[in-house]
Amino acid sequence: MTERAYKYRFYPTPEQENLLRRTIGCVRLVYNKALATRTEAWYSKKEIVGYKETSSFLTGWKKTTELDFLNEVSCVPLQQCLRHLQKAFANFWGKRAGYPRFKKKRNGGSAEFTKSAFKWKDGKLWLAKCKEPLNIVWSRYLPNGAKPSRVTVKFDPSGRWYVSLLVDDQTIEQLPPTDKKVGIDVGISRLISTSDGEKIANPKHFNRLYHKLKRAQKVLSRKTKGSNNRYKARLEVAKIHAQIKDARTDFLHKLTTKLVRENSSIAIEDLGVRNMVKNHKLARSISDAAWGEMFRQLEYKCEWYGRELVKIDRFYPSSKRCNHCGFVVEKLPLDVRSWDCPSCGTTGIDRDINAGKNILAAGRPIFLIFNKEVLIKPITYPAHQ
Fold this sequence. Notes:
Number of helices: 10
Order of helices and strands: EHHHEEEEEEEEEHHHEHHHEEEH
Structural class: alpha+beta
Radius of gyration: 25 Å
Shape: globular
Strand content: 15-25%
Number of strands: 14
Strand order of the largest sheet: 2-6-7-1-5
């Protein structure tokens, strides 16, 4: 049994949209107010305010005259946003993320509903305080017998409404085993290069719509702040960003699903993408390639379908090491795409394919541990490495 979220677009009625906009606005207000309270308590009194304290604050805020409108929306999304804030602080203290940021209205927003705040009956969804079910566009059906355990409503900056249904999916089955193992090296001009010699070009979705986005942003910059025309121009910019995001996500899902179906074991590099984007010359290209999202999809899909995923150390010299003899060159600039090995004499070594083969070779001992086998002839390299 696996938890899986199914995302659909829906079109709310005017009454539903009014209620959902107010709910999302209240969620944003409570989140920002709780974040400000916790930050002020730490810097002024060195006190750590947790979820219980912020929940008590929320009860007090609802009783004030200024914030009594918080009672007009469901209380569940307000409590859930406090739990999300607590998780954000836990990730910060665990050095897994940066300090929590304030939510902004222009970024849209979301509201999460648990079982007590929605009703699911005959394939229809009623949210708390909504008289009519949501008009959901069922692009795909839920698994038979599946009932949502949590519902998340999201309003994106381009003006689209989405609902995400979290269900226990019993239809996910492990794929039949194959004999194929692959090592993957990621890049900018070529998104991935595999140990099998396959190269997949980077679609560069941002560059494809860059000029269109640039013109829309120029129009936006000329509008008066607060005017209706500026709101329309901002919406056009958000729609172009949404096109880029949707195309990138669709491409990555198709690519990662193909890799998981065809290979029983996959080896990748454990890259520090967050540190790599600090290079201002490559930041836009690295962000557009979305290596982190691709690795995230590979990780959960391998877990779903019974595949093995191994991450190689980020400092492993996969590109500099000759996959024939193991010789490691001292320097290999990014503009050098092929090189000759001075040790074994191999010529025309493709940088990316060579890296994929070395990543696979480095992950092979770990694959054998997963399969409870013994490596009889370990890979050895000359002393000069």
